[in-house]
GL25923
Amino acid sequence: MSLTSRVTLGVAVTVSSAIIGYVHYKQSEDRLKLHEGVIRDVEQQQRRKHENRYTLQQQIDMTKQLKALEASSASPEPQAQSSPAESQPAQVEKQPKSPASNLKAHPAAQEAPPSQPTD
């Protein structure tokens, strides 16, 4: 075998080995990056889950406070020395049922719509 063929064979083997080594190294690095991405995604999911639970708990607390407020405002308060006229329930005016009589009952509904400005 001649010197030129030996050098060519050596260079080819060296270049091939370097390429194969680089590809294996790059695959290992890519796998690690992918694995780190999965870990990061799991951490984000856990963080979001925790935040969502916290928000849900806040909403539950606010709902309880609102219900308690509504219950306290709906409970009858004792009246201090009311006159007999105040103790009787107020007479509620009955609304007419036909649309035409509704217009008669509500003068604001009979007003014309505001005119459009012309440019």
Remarks:
- The helical segments are 3-74, 84-87, 99-105, 107-110.
- The longest helix spans residues 3-74.
- Residues 45-70 form one domain.
- Residues 2 and 8 are 10 Å apart (CA to CA).
